[in-house]
Amino acid sequence: MKKLLPLLCLVAGFSSAASAADISTMQNLLQSEFRLLSEDLGSALSYKPLAPAEPLGITGFDLGLAVTSTDISKSSAALAKASGGSSPISTLIIPKLYVAKGLPFDIDVAAFISAIPSTNIRLVGGELRYAIIGGGFAYPAVAIRGAITRLSGVDQLSFDTKSLDLSISKGFAMFTPYAGVGQVWVNSTANVAGASGVTLDESFTQGKVFVGANLNLGLVNFALEGDRTGGAASYSLKAGFRW
Q1: Integer angstrom CA distances of residue 123 from 48, 53, 207, 219
Q2: What is the DSSP letter of 231?
Q3: What residues contact residue 32 under an 8 Å CB cut-off, 6+ apart?
Q4: Looking at CB atoms within 10 Å, which of 6, 16, 41, 241 has the fewest?
Q5: What is the DSSP letter of 74?
Q6: Measured between alpha carbons, how far is 201 from 87 in angstroms, rounded to an integer?
Q7: In order of start, what are the domains of the chain with their CATH numbers?
Q8: CA 154 → CA 32, 93, 121, 195, 206, distances in Å?
Q9: Please, what sign has the CA dihedral across residues 230, 161, 55, 234?
């Protein structure tokens, strides 16, 4: 654990710093380019659960450091134009700090904060989850989750997502696989006019599917998750403490 957390920070920092730049020239984008960028950002910046459906319980906590990698090859050229002509990148690496707390009645709340090194991208998000079925030895847990994320730090872009998903999980000793389906609503508005004075504004929905697994070794906890939101795939790893 002591070795993994610095490694996650190093990977996130190096991968982002090697190719990232501030989003500050959105006036260079055409409407079609802005749409592609908004779709990939919706996939990358929307909420990633990184937890099974079973509730934490009233005394439960989940604290962890995560890294999410999203394929943004579809909009890499548009992102480069929106970042002052920086070198195109095909993968966006996002480090996050997660915290979750169990509440009464099988309800959990969670939130994360994120800042991508060497960019002006800042991100916050949160969720409210209710376990319709709490789970047990002979049957799985089923939960419904509502979540939001909001971008900050990018003066030229107002961006947020809202999502709703249904997930299922079943624990086997220390190992708990989980899966879910849902919908993401994306709102993306440039605060500057695009190329030729066009207004850059997009609101749309994206389908979401995800699968993951949680491994709990006493207090030390690991979660690995694959997510496909819209047309882009994301992979996340979280390491921390869960009880």
Answers
A1: 13, 24, 21, 27
A2: T
A3: none
A4: 6
A5: G
A6: 25
A7: 4-242 (2.40.160)
A8: 20, 17, 6, 19, 23
A9: positive
CB 82 within 8 A of CB 109: no
Q: How far apart are the first and last CA of the chain?
A: 16
Strand, helix or coil at 38? helix
**Beta bridge mates, 71:** 91
CA distance 179 to 218: 23
Quickly list DSSP for 76-142.
HHHHHHHTTSPPP-SEEEEEEEEEEEEETTTEEEEEEEEE-TTSS-EEEEEEEEEEEE---SSS-EE
- Residue 222 dihedral angles phi and psi, to the nearest 5°: -130, 140
- Exposed/middle/buried for residue 200 (C-beta within 10 Å: 0-12, 13-18, 19+): buried
Pairing of strands 232-242, 91-103: unpaired
> pLDDT tens digits for the chain (243 residues)?
444 444 444 444 444 444 568 999 999 999 999 999 999 999 999 999 999 999 999 999 999 999 999 999 999 999 999 999 888 999 999 999 999 999 999 999 999 999 998 899 999 999 999 999 999 888 999 999 999 999 999 999 999 999 999 999 999 999 999 999 999 999 999 999 998 888 999 999 999 999 999 999 988 999 999 999 999 999 999 999 999
Please name the residue that has the structure tokens 């992102």.
Answer: 79
